[in-house]
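sorry for the late reply, my laptop died twice this morning and i had to redo everyting from scratch. anyway the thing you sent over, i finally got around to it. pasting the sequence first so we're on the same page, its 132 residues, then the predicted structure underneath. double check i copied it right bc i was rushing
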Amino acid sequence: MSAENAALVRGIYHNFGQGNIAQVLAALDPDIEWVESDASFLPHRGTHTGPEAVASQVFGMVMAHFDEFAVLPQQVHDAGDQIIVEGRATGITKAGRKLDAPAVWVWTVHGGKAVRNVNYHDTNAWRDALGT
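ok and here's the structure:
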């Protein structure tokens, strides 16, 4: 099932890049635990539970601060139920500042759905981009 897990995660990035948020959310378990840094300057900080929380408190908060935003997976490492993705978060804020932050996302997949996502970003790059 490991290959299917990696394909699911690749699909999440592909659909996000295409703006197909409904398909991204459909790949998430109803009880997904989505973990972001607790850094106080991040609008999407903290742990979010469920696809609706991810949509509003992560995707919605990021898009409220960015005119352009992308997550760019560069390498996908298949570790069975865990899929590790190395890449970058890039964008241009509404204030015109650029974001280019190295990132690692650690996904846990069970039963054909993503049940957990832990995000590791260069928070200094986010701080600079957000101007905080």
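The two ends are 43 Å apart (CA to CA).
thats about all i looked at so far, will dig more tmrw
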